Please model this.
Amino acid sequence: MVVEYTLETSFELAQYTGRTHFSGDVMGESGMKTASDVNVIGKPLGNLGNLEVEFDWPWEVANGKWLLYLMEIQTKGTSDSHCVPPGDIVNPLNLTLPESKARRRRRREEGSTEEGAPKTTQASLNLKGTRKKFFNLDCVTGTAHCVKFICPLHNMNNTATIIVRARVWNSTMLEDYREAWRVTVNGKATLKLVTDKPTIRMNTKSTEFTLDIDPELGEEAPYQVPLWIIIVSAVAGVLLLAFIILLMWKCGFFKRASTREMYEAKAQKAEMKTQPSEVERLTEE
Model:
């Protein structure tokens, strides 16, 4: 007699839809210093076999630029404190992790106490009125490139938590999505059972997560004209000026009367003055 066991698990995200902003200047890869958090929580029931979470992570846009740059993957409730997938996909540029929220809050409070009077800020223009485009980035449609990685939940009890910290790549937003009023990024996490016992089963569970990226209100990055536009404009201006000069030359604008022609005109005028009139000629006759 063979008895089959089916694990009943609960798998959910701490926050299905997150929101962040982009603003400022375009920076190189070495200029990215902070990260934002995306939390994934799983609550498996029972400890038969091992559970693992497979991520479809949107880390690049279609042209290969960074999108959600993985900074760190922490695990709680398991024997491993961090998940380090193969392939050097977690923080390959060795960027600095952000300070904790409590520390940032404490620094803001200390700064406001030292300054005393509140700062007066200038009124800013709501940029959403001038931004008309909405972008949806996901790996199904090919608008984003996803990387697959697995985080095993070794020796977990009843509850395990996976915290994925990622950096929204600000330069990509400014360069490729300057006209966007919102960029939505979609990814997926799947809970799976790994066991060598054929009598233990579990239904695979998947959940999707969404990150809404909005432009920072009241702040517009300065637009830099590409160099090729400047060169083409300069060449076009020179050609237009040359065409105008050639047209004026064809119309005789730059022609001058020669000295000989001027002399002949003066001599003819002098001869006309010395000729006798008709009255004098009749009187003499």
Notes: DSSP finds five helices and twelve strands in the chain. Residues 5-115+122-215 form a domain with the Immunoglobulin-like fold (CATH 2.60.40.1530).
